[in-house]
Amino acid sequence: MNLPMLSLLAVVRRHHDDPMVAWIAGIVFFGTIAFAIGTILYRKRLQRKRTEALPPIAASLGLEFQPLGSNGLLAKHSCFGLFSRGRHRKALNVLQGGSDNRQIAIFDYDYTTGHSEGKMQWHTTVLSFSLADATLPYFFLRKKRINDTVSRWFRDKDIEIPGYPEFRQRYVLRGKDVAAIRALFTEPVIDFFYRNPSLSAEGDTQMLVLYRLGKRVKPDAIGEFLATGLEFVALLKLS
User: For residue 139, how many other CB atoms are within 10 A of its CB?
Assistant: First the structure.
């Protein structure tokens, strides 16, 4: 039971002889429960509608659709920071396909952080590429946040791309092989992220993922999301 409900019960105990207090407390108590149930049902309805809308979109893109992802899908992406966050991690609404040299997966990734009043559920649509002919250095890129100015003193320093000081001001770019990452982030790649400022990206060996943290891509925008990812892969000139 959460803190507000416990506080409400404490008020009722202190004023148990006052029928008005008990009546008001009862309305608030049952109203809160009804609201919580209604919210859960509404979210389930939205999830069901999303799942129902995706199969024809998958077919139009030449991809297969699975409403539930497998543990193997998450394990395959465990090298990335996104997939080590929180708990109750799950993949669902999976669109996947491709060739021997390039496998594509688009899926919703959900996880939970925090506890009690600070509990949050995160819902993110991920675009993943498995590139058999690639050898990517590990890298992580996202748009900078306000607290990065302070936290950078306690973490790995951002990688600077020579000739592009503004890029470092706008993005967090980290990884171990600095030289290989700098070679990867050419002018066209930097321009790509200027045009898509909300995108985050992670790469490692033959894997690459793109996502907007905490954002689900609408079903009718899945094709555009895939096209954006394919543009990024082409700009990297991995083969």
Answer: 21
Angle at 156 between CA 155 and CA 157, to 5 degrees: 115
pTM summary value? 0.79
11 pLDDT higher than 60: no
Q: For 79-92, what is each residue's pLDDT tens digit? A: 999 999 999 999 99
In degrees to the nearest 10, what's the CA dihedral of 163, 165, 166, 171? 110
Do 204 and 129 contact (CB within 8 A), yes or no?
A: no
- What tokens were used for 196? 């898509």
Which class for 149: exposed (0-12), middle (13-18), buried (19 or more C-beta within 10 A)? Answer: exposed
Q: Are 106 and 96 in contact (CB under 8 A)?
A: yes
Decide if 15 contacts 21 (C-beta within 8 A).
yes
The CA–CA distances, whole Å, from 34 to 3, 20, 21, 30, 234 equal: 17, 21, 20, 6, 51
